[in-house]
Amino acid sequence: MKNLLFESILGFIFIMVSINCSGPKADLVLKNGVIYTVDENLSQAQAVAISDKKIIAVGTDAEIEEFVGMGTQVIDLEGRTVTPGFIDSHYHFMGVGRREFQLNLDGTKSLQEFLDKVATEVAAKSDGEWITGRGWIEEDWPSKRFPTRQDLDKIAPHNPVILGRADGHAIVVNSKALEISGITKATEDPQGGKILRDQYSGEATGLLIDRAMSLVRKHMPSDDSPEIQREYAKKANEVALAYGLTQVHDMGSSFGSVDLWKNMYENDELKIRLYVCIRGPNEHTERLLEEGPQIGLYDDKLNVRAIKISADGALGSRGAALLEPYSDADTKGLLIYHDEEIYPTIKKALENNIQMVIHAIGDGANRRILDLYERAFDEVPESKRSNMTPRFRIEHSQIVHLDDIPRFKELGVIPSMQPSHAIGDLHFAVRRLGMDRMAEGYAWRQFIDQGSYIPGGSDAPVEEGNPMIEFYAACVRKDTTGFSTDGWHPEYKMTREEALKSLTIWGAKAAFSEDLIGSIEPGKYADLVVLAKNLMTEPEERLFDIKVLMTIIGGEIVYKKEEFLSSK
Ligand SMILES: [Zn+2]
Fold first, then answer.
1. Domain 2-79 in this protein, CATH class
2. Cross-strand partners of 175
3. Which of 371, 403, 468, 491 is the most exposed place for a label (fewest CB within 10 A)?
4. Sign of the dihedral defined by the CA atoms of residues 84, 538, 533, 461, in that order
5. Separation of 145 CA from ligand 1 center, angstroms?
6. Does the domain made of 107-165+169-217 have the CATH classification 3.40.50.720?
7. Residues around ligand 1, an ion, CB closer than 5 A
8. Do the beta carbons of residue 28 and residue 528 sit within 8 Å?
9. Which tens digits make up the pLDDT trace of 206-253?
């Protein structure tokens, strides 16, 4: 009797063990790490189990052990930090690819250094070939003045030259480029654009702002051959994955790009998730409104469900539309469109489950767009809307009148902001806006405290596109040398937890994807990043230097730093 009981207990235990052994097994387990899940309670874990593209369990090393089977790849993190894959909510995907093939003027420290770089490029080209480059910021130079065509003519008399300011809202060109474009003293400023002119002679200085840029650009040899575009996309994919990005919100492309990306997903050439905004208003945005959104393609790698429009320019080139004139020039900036050019699109988007994503930097442009959104919400009854939470966004939301900040919350409008713009602009924003208006600049604290969430982004290639720079900028609010300035409101900065949310779950929410990505929780796609240092404890001045060791999208290791985990 005793023996029998003993045997049956043994048998029971055996059955329990075999049930346990035959439980679900993971394809991939990461263990022995510091995992910031960014779930509702911001809980931490040690290990995560991944099967068939998705996370199946998160917990302690002991809890996750049971998911390890014969075929499971196990990675010992050796105490390293893991976060959800980074989401860059304002990114120009093809622009990042193009940047890698152009003369890069990022970080030039003087006009002379800038000219030297251009001269080297000119020497490598034959006469008549276009010289294209980007990335200069005159505010970083001791002279602090815009470059002119005369500066460029000295080094490039025979080649047309076109060089973009880092913010993407101004170009400087030489006399050859002006000549090819037929721009003379008599050429009028286009609506929404400005040709800077010499105050005595009235001749163009070579600096063209916002819509005036296309006067020259349309004469450039096109780079839209399918081969070149594919190279740009491949390069951008590579750059993004190496920075730990797992989804980027592409701020304005055409259906031509969408078709290319579909082809690349089908051939497994693209790994990054793309949330696509179609740029308009034009026939492409009309088509999107007509055909409706494309949601969740290729395991949610591709979503096409938003329209991007620019309401104004940028602060650096004084194209941002302000309510009151600039403090350092007699202008209020530029509104690119009349209301009637964009309102019908906004209204139709609300009716057709398309998200509106509008660029507004100045307080004038922000108020204008809030007004137009509010008008659409008033005019389109709920019965006519296909989505009760349209999640309309304002990109940048940089300078917002204090009376207008609460309207974001009331209207459910998302302030999509780029922390690195704040630490770049701090070198000149006070001059452009004056001390008092700085209270309404880059007001992350007010937005978060009133219950708005801020999807964070880099606007790459305007900025580098490195999420750790965005993280640093958001929670330190100084430039990368540690510099800040009077009137900069250090108290507006985010906490590290908020900055991490802004680069993960808040970005997912702004793309309607919070049930699929943005945190490390069972049931979601396994999008993760392994970091070399802990971003929650690393000293502030070293945060932007934290390297990405591994990037995982949908359970697939899509980037691995060579010297790291080579054995794994
Ligand atoms: Zn942008």
1. mainly beta
2. none
3. 491
4. positive
5. 24
6. no
7. 251, 459
8. no
9. 999 988 999 999 999 887 788 999 999 999 999 999 999 999 999 999
